[in-house]
Amino acid sequence: MKRIITITLIIAALFTALPTATVKAQTGVGTWKAYMSYHTVTKVVKHAGMLYVLASGDLYTYNTADNSINTYDTTNLLSDCGIADMEWCDGAKRLVVIYKNGNIDIIDEKLNCTNLPDYANKMLTVDKTINQLSVSGNRAYLATNFGIVVINVQNATIIDTYNLGQKVAAVTLGGGDIYAATTEGIIKGSQKDNLTDKACWTKVADKAFKWIFWRGGHIEGINNGELCNISAKDGKTDFVTKVWLTNACLSGGRIVCTGAKNLTYIYNTPTDYTLVRTTFTGLAYDAQTDTYWGPGTDDLLCNMKIERTNGIEGTATPISSGIATDGPKYNYFGFIRYMNQKLYTGGGQSSPEREACIQILDGNDWEIYDDSFAASLKGNYHSTYCIDLDPSDPTHIYAGTQAGLFEFRNGKMTQHYSIDNAPFVPASDTDPYSYTLITTLKATPDGSLWCFNSNAKDGSASLLQLKDGKWTSHHNTAFVDSKGASMRYARSMMTDSRGLLWFVNDEWRLPALVCYNMKTGESRTYTSFVNEDGTAVNAGQVSCVVEDRSGNLWIGTDGGPLMLTAEAIASGSSTFVQVKVPRNDGTNLADYLLNNVYITSICIDGAGRKWFGTSGNGVYLISADNLQQIEHFTSSNSALLSNIIESVSVNDRTGEVFFGTSNGLCSYIGDATEPSEEMTKDNVYAYPNPVEPGYTGLITVVGLTLNADIKIVGPAGTLVKSGRSNGGTFTWDGTDLHGNPVASGIYMVETATADGKKGTVCKIGVIR
User: Fold this and answer.
1) CA-to-CA distance for 496 and 627, rounded, in angstroms?
2) What is the mean pLDDT of residues 148-170?
3) Distances from the Cα of 573 to the Cαs of 309, 388, 499, 559, in angstroms?
4) Which residue of 57, 250, 424, 681 shows the fewest CB atoms closer than 10 Å?
5) Number of Cβ within a 10 Å radius of residue 317
6) Residue 345 and residue 327 in contact, taking contact as beta carbons nearer than 8 Å
7) CB atoms within 10 A of CB 445
């Protein structure tokens, strides 16, 4: 009883002393979060009352009993990104998930996941592409470009590999045999035979099929142009119907086929089918309610009743529709920038081309800009390269795209600048409206918008200024490459603390860093990069530029990061610093910082540390003095979605660092925030607070000034921990000076500024 009273008094004292705003739940330092798209449903798998939904390459579940939705990603269940297919295995009571890279997850009913990476990691001389997944009993069968892989789902092991020396599009089982649809026809092998021996396989039918299903003692084969019934005895093929089909699946004993011209065919038997004049891909039949689950006309999850109305004609009547979880519409994040306490994102450049999209994260809520106007454009609305806010009106934003420049107000498009009403030059004469590239831009406080017209085919357009509705060209022949076009991919436009405009050209013909004085019109283009030792740096790509807290510029290249110091900028020097990191091995030798690592994006956090995103090497966090590697996150040692990083940005208030990757958007809660100008009882607080039993994460103190001196003192006045803030943040692992967990009690956080002036005090309650 005494302990309960003590704990109650601790909590009461703690919450009385702290402002209400400081005790709200916050995500702990060191935690990851994924922001996946679950928008476009492509397949639904039903087991009992649970729906497993594949949407935009990601997985979520929908409980039909209580209508609850749960999403899954690498931070809470899955081992990878980019799901290609999935099926429920009744024999093993598990969901088999196949990723595009060949990785495999096996998930049980209690949502325990077992990863099977063997196939993805196996070095083979054959093409390992997986074409389809099928299940039978407690086994799963992968149809690949070289043959068949057999998985024991119960044990999560690969038990057989049949190298047939030819592409297998689909597999089905029936009558004790395995049937494989190959490019040369359908072949079969008895499950009793040694099927690793090609001689044990015999041809059943000459026609090539993309899908095959075993139903009612026979095989039904489907290719792009027809559906056929194939005899299991003699291989006789009976043509059933000719129709252009693009997708097929088997659910509840019914074959659901998607056809051209927005048609869906549901086959009860090869000759008994219902035709619905709407496309429904990957439907799951619910026998209990005689309904179907799949994508509705808005691509979101829908439950519908499909009934015949006239002959074979049927209609789909939605019972419930638009079922979705909040999230982005696309997993495209080639451009991200944290502005106005929101994360503004665009798809960026990619091949194949991405749909243009503006997706804004505000706390936990997403705003997706309406793009219905795209249907009336003369060209394709693709590739949102860049976004910036009007400094005088954050509801007014500019977006540079492959189809020109767009203005939005309150989420609605209000102006489109193209070759018809702006001095833009397209990259192509064949489709000029689809290829008028505005790849980087910057809105300045004087009401100007600066933008770059990349890859203007005749080199007559490049740097442009829009102000008060009038366009001014600031074209310079230095912005034209050797083939006579303007810089092919200008990006990362920014203004520095000196009022200078900077951008880079991320293209091998003219890799460059550009400085432009907006007042005088003077410009300087750096096209060669020599370090302080007089050594030329091999920089074939220049991807980004950012200013640090000391006024230095950091440039990302495929040869590593370079720094142009504030002194060099002031003097006009073209010497770049390639930071040398001492080996500290007694040799007095040093290595260039991240030498030859392809840097794609750089972001400076609240402590002045550099986050370097790379092309294939994940993310590096480097100390403010540039000499220490604090973190190196990859997809194998963290929840980072991909090692290919397209963009990085940070929320300086919370320390959340966002990574736009080739697989989507994720974030990491860092231990540095923007420092406060002063420390007061209102802005300095700790979380979690109180620290409850079982908590093992970091305790975070925020609202501190730069390099603040921190002392944590125990109930008896004993010093427990001390240190300095990272920007405006200090973290404590809950241990004392000897590394032992502290006891229950109230701990005082005493602060002082870097110059020794007394700050404020906050309290942390610890309950063990």
Assistant:
1) 24
2) 97
3) 79, 30, 18, 20
4) 681
5) 10
6) no
7) 10
Owner of token pair 């047939």? 164
- Whether the CB-CB separation of 350 and 334 falls below 8 Å is answered with yes
Provide the whole-model pTM.
0.91
Residue 22 has pLDDT above 50, yes or no: no
Q: What is the pLDDT of residue 13?
A: 43
Q: Give DSSP secondary structure letters for 3-35.
A: HHHHHHHHHHHHHHHS-GGGGS--PPTT-EEEE
SS3 517: coil
Beta strands at 575-576 and 530-531: parallel, antiparallel or unpaired: parallel
* Cα-Cα end-to-end distance for the chain: 15
Collapsed DSSP state (helix, strand, coil) of residue 508: coil
For residue 318, the cross-strand partners are 304
354: its two tokens: 């991405």
pLDDT digits 0-9 by tens, 697-751: 899 999 999 999 999 999 989 999 999 999 999 999 999 999 999 999 999 999 9
Give the tens place of pLDDT for each residue, 409-438: 999 999 999 999 999 999 999 999 999 999
C-alpha closest to that of 187 among 179, 195, 196: 179
Q: How far is Cα 621 from Cα 603, in angstroms, rounded to an integer?
A: 10
Per-residue pLDDT at 8 exceeds 70: no
Listed in sequence order, the residues at least 6 apart from 594 whose beta carbon sits closer than 8 Å to its beta carbon are: 560, 561, 612, 614, 620, 622
Which of 8-22, 250-264, 629-643 is least confident?
A: 8-22
In DSSP terms, which residues pair with 320 in a beta bridge? 303
Do residues 280 and 264 make contact, with C-beta atoms less than 8 angstroms apart? yes
Q: What is the DSSP string of 289-308?
A: TTEEEEE-TTSSEEEEEEEE
What is the tens place of the pLDDT at every residue in 638-691?
999 999 999 999 999 899 999 999 999 999 999 999 999 999 988 999 989 999
Q: What pLDDT is stored for residue 17 in this prediction?
A: 42
Q: Bridge partners of 313?
A: 275, 310
468: helix, coil or strand?
Answer: coil
For tokens 């004049």, the residue is 277
Q: Give CA 106 to chain center in angstroms.
A: 23
Q: Which tokens in the block code for residue 639?
A: 């929840």
Cβ–Cβ under 8 Å, residues 651 and 343: yes
**To 10 degrees, the CA torsion angle through 380, 386, 390, 393?**
70
Nearest to 478 by CA among 436, 428, 515: 515
The span from the CA of 293 to the CA of 614, in Å, is 41
3-state secondary structure of 561: strand
Q: 86: closest CA among 41, 49, 126, 120?
A: 41
Please provide the average confidence, as pLDDT, over all residues in the chain: 93
Residues with Cβ within 8 Å of residue 587, at least 6 apart in sequence: none
What is d(CA 14, CA 764) in angstroms, rounded to the nearest whole number? 7
Burial 19-44 (b: 16+ CB within 10 A, else e): eeebbeeebbbeebbbbbbbbbbbbb
φ/ψ of residue 66, rounded to 5: -120, 5
Burial readout 564-600 (b: 16 or more C-beta within 10 A, e: otherwise):
bbbebbeeeeeebbbbbbeeeeeeeeeebbbeebbbb
